[in-house]
Amino acid sequence: MEALPIFSALFAAASVYLFWFYLLARKLTGPSVWPVVGSIPFLFSNRKQIHDWITNNLRATGGSATYQTCTLALPFLARRQGLFTVTCNPKNIEHILRTRFDNYPKGPTYQAAFHDLLGEGIFNSDGETWLTQRKTAALEFTTRTLRQAMARWVNRTIRNRLWFILDKAARDHIAVDLQDLLLRLTFDNICGLTFGKDPETLSPELPDNPFSKAFDNATEATLKRLLYPSFLWRIQKLFGLGAERQLEKSLEVVGDYMNDAVAARKLTPSDDLISRFMNKRDIDGNPFPSAVLQRIALNFVLAGRDTSSVALSWFFHLVMENPQIEEKIVAEISTVLKQTRGDDPRLWVKEPLVFDEADKLVYLKAALSETLRLYPSVPEDFKYVVNDDILPDGTFVPAGSTVTYSIYSVGRMKSIWGEDCMEFKPDRWISADGKFEPPKDGYKFVAFNAGPRTCLGKDLAYLQMKSVASAVLLRYRLSLVPGFRAQQKMSLTLFMKDGLQVYLHPRKLGGGPDQVTQAAATSA
Ligand code: HEM
Ligand SMILES: *[C@@H]1O[C@H](CO)[C@@H](O)[C@H](O)[C@H]1NC(C)=O
Ligand SMILES: *[C@@H]1O[C@H](CO)[C@@H](O)[C@H](O)[C@H]1NC(C)=O
Fold first, then answer.
1. pTM for this model (two decimals)
2. How far is the CA of 107 from the centre of ligand 1 (A)?
3. Looking at domain 122-523, what is its CATH homologous superfamily?
4. Quick one: average pLDDT of 178-195?
5. Do the strands 476-480 and 176-177 form a parallel or antiparallel pair, or are they unpaired?
């Protein structure tokens, strides 16, 4: 019976803690708080629309320009007192991403979780390790030759594979999962750009590719690590259980593939990123060893693979919902191609865009940015707090906690984007004299992040998205499969849960016959 007093003492201590927690959490601005379980039941019941739930909580703070932060009480889940701070206040975001950059690194939890997959690569490091890679990479990303390399990979996948697949689907009246096709396309592009090898996951048979599958598995297992307290995955890893066992197996497949890819580039260097890094030196002046080159490559593949395809999926969805805007987009592309290729619409759909054509598409760029405002590919992002700090709106963040900034909510706040913030209006990105004009306060639009760690691939992503958007919209009109509804997946990337199921209808340009029949006739 000796266990009883100990048990009672523990019970009493736990009750005191939980009561104290309740008192503390009750005062928070945020969703309702219940004793013991805090906001967890609300989080759970809203898990299928988590981003909208966060947005609603932030709106409920009054959504005034000075206060757009709320704290969720998540005992057992969140670190440091079970409090979880989320903000969408542009002033706070600027403070985190730029002003006090050094106080808000990715931090140890994130780095430990991603370490097996990404090592100390640019995406997963802080301080000096990050800065040297950032400088080296930033030089490469401004070169015209890298843009040309991207244009070449995009060009190849569109003319040889995407059009082939879509033409066939249009002719045979079969539905396609457009998101799946786009994910395959951008995966192929980023592999080509990074290590000069196109795995051709986008091809008519839609083959299973062991590398892409294993990479998906590894990413998913890695993200799972972030959802639960870290001792859980560490124990699983130690004993090789569950998701950790999957991760280990997937990492072997990924490692073998990257081994071959880097070895091949050492034999025949090209204009891909790895070949460029092969000519560089690390901090100590030595060339990067093969193992490091592989990790560098994986970091770029992770950063550049899903983001553009997810954005394009939401773009096509918004275009289907807004026919007048679709019309304006098609009209702009037609006007530009008429200037560069002449009056015959068949010539407009024969080749993907070249550089200069893509550069002229201002309204399309606005529509893509407007898509990212409403559906940012990375909807929530977070940073670690090194020292106690007070955010510009007065919120206290304790050292060792995590502060989340909701990129998704920034775009959906009336106090930030105006009364019409929920509407798809590309024109808000166009200045009076017809130029593309991002908001003056750069922290109102953070889909590409901002500050020293801003996305390196932004220009490449716009180039790629413009080419694909034009290649699809000039040839086809899209319609949703009847009964299909696009839904968000609960994930750190804003995927559509069941893909994007559409039918393609040949489009008639300039009053002539439809372009697919025409293209088929010319190639016959
Ligand atoms: C629509 C497309 C894209 C979006 C919305 C996007 C968004 C982002 C965001 C939000 C981050 C910050 C992530 C974080 O630190 O937590 C980021 C970082 C990064 N992105 Fe992108 N990205 C896109 C496309 C690309 C592409 C195509 C590439 C490569 C070719 C790329 C390369 C990178 C790299 C290297 C970083 C890490 C920068 C650093 O930590 O210093 N991105 N991107
Ligand atoms: C990926 O995960 C699935 C189950 O989620 C599993 O069946 C498959 O074997 C895994 N693939 C690899 C390459 O690890
Ligand atoms: C795309 O490829 C075709 C054939 O190789 C070429 O004629 C065309 O100029 C390329 N376009 C771009 C933008 O590279």
1. 0.91
2. 18
3. Cytochrome P450 (1.10.630.10)
4. 97
5. unpaired
